[in-house]
Each structure stands twice: as structure tokens, then as C-alpha cells.
Amino acid sequence: MTQYIYQARVRWADQDAQRHVNNVVYVDYLQEARVDWILDGPHPELLNHGITVVAQQVEYVSPAYFGGDSIIIRLWVSRVGGARFTVAYEVSQGDTLVARATTDCAPYDVTAHRVRRLTAAERAWLDDWSGPQITFRDLPQVPWDRGSGVEYPVRVRWSEVDACGHINNVAILTFLQEARIAVLEEARGRDGWGRPGADISWLVAAQQIEYRTEMPYRIEPYLAELVVLHLGSSSMSLEVQIRDPRLDVLHAAGRVVLVCADGQGRPRRISDTVRAALRPITMTAGGPYGD
């Protein structure tokens, strides 16, 4: 199997309150590796003419840190279709595997504002990088009605617009994180998590996002709605949807598994305070990560 190898340098600003590389930053590293791979190949038009990210999935295996070894990303193509391909990644720091991930991509006609088919030459190049598919643990899927969750306004920054004039895929993941933190901040009561040195934290174990339609920049906020899909003894699964409230358009839907942990990263029971606060927006009980 042929792999493209990319080295990412961890910046000081990439850390979160627990001094781990933030979960969203991993996806930024994946984007940098993917762009580097495309521009280094014979078909830079995949970027010049437009490419859209359809979906992403990440499983976080171990924390990464600032001040240690560089982040090494090994990249290959796990699937090629007529108008879509999947890029697979293994992310390591030193000898430690820290994450596995996939990105579903589609070539995009910027002028016509639609997905286009891959050319024969593009398909042949992608086939040269073919490798195995990555199997992830299933994230919970629970049907729920709009209005069941907590709403949070999402305001876009001008710096989050990409070269195609849309909100960049990594920025949308940041919106999901922002909504999640805001809702949990309300739920935590007197629990001291989320602060540097706290003995309680929430670790992201896995997340998946589907991008339904592009988000243009605008001053008016978009609307995020969050529900709890599963609530276990030490983990919970959430879903966040981002919509345009004026046009009733769904732009993105993301699901994430969070694990409540102590200061050493060991799972601990979710407090009764948080359980009581989240009960009105919890769809089912139980959890997928050992609960």
C-alpha cells in the first residue's frame, strides 16, 4: 500500500484547557495533509476548480501534546466512486497512534455550484493511492424532532471563509464544539470541569460530521440545536444540527462521544447534577463506549 506522509508541527495555540491538542485541531491537520498531497500530485485542479468535503469521521485513540514529537499523518485512498472518494488517515505522535480518520470528498464545479464527476485521469491517480478501509465503532443514531434540544446561535467570522467562498469544513466543526461547550457549561452546576488543573474533564472519544449544503458568510447567526442521544455511566453521545433559521436549510449534522474523566484521563461517573440538567434533552439511556 502506498501512503503519503505529512509532518504537522503542533503549535502552542493548538492546546485545550487540559493541555491536549484540541479535537478540532486534528481535523485541521488532516486538511493540511490532504491539501499538501493534492498539490504535490498531478491534479491540483481538484483544489483550483473546487473540492467539497461531504463527511468526516475521527476516532481519538490517545492524546497528543505540544512540545513532544511532530504529528505524522499517513494518508491513503480507501474508496473511489464516480463523483466521490474517501481519504483515510492514521495520525501518530512519536510511536503512539493518536487518531484514525476518514474524509469523504467530492470534486466541485465552482461556476455551476454543483458536484462534478471525477475525470479518468483523476480516478487513475487516486487508484494509485488505494489502501484498506478503516472500520470505526458505530456512533449512536436516534431519531429526534426539531425543538427537542437546546438551541445556540452560531456567529461566523470572516476569517472562516475558504478559497471557494464558503465556510471552511474545519470551522463548522468548531461551531459544533462551541455549541456543545455552551450547553454543557449550563449543565455542569458546581462541577469544576473545563478549567486548567481541574480534576474533571470531558474527553472526545469519537466524532462524525456530515456536511449537507455549503454555508455562506453572513452577519446574522445560524442556529445550532443539540440533543443527548445516549447518556451512560461515564460517557454520553450528542448530536448537533446547524440550520439557517430563515430558510429552514440544514447545513451540517455532527455526532460526538464524550467521556467524563478525572485529572489522569481515567473514566469517572457523570455527576447527578449533570444528569438531571441533561435529562430533558436526552433521547435514550445507555452508551456505546463501555457503559
From TrEMBL:
Pfam families with a match to the protein in the record: 4HBT_2 (PF13279)
GO molecular function: fatty acyl-CoA hydrolase activity
PANTHER family: 4-HYDROXYBENZOYL-COA THIOESTERASE FAMILY MEMBER, LONG-CHAIN ACYL-COA THIOESTERASE FADM
Name under which the protein is recorded: Thioesterase domain-containing protein
Naturally occurring in which organism (per UniProt): bioreactor metagenome
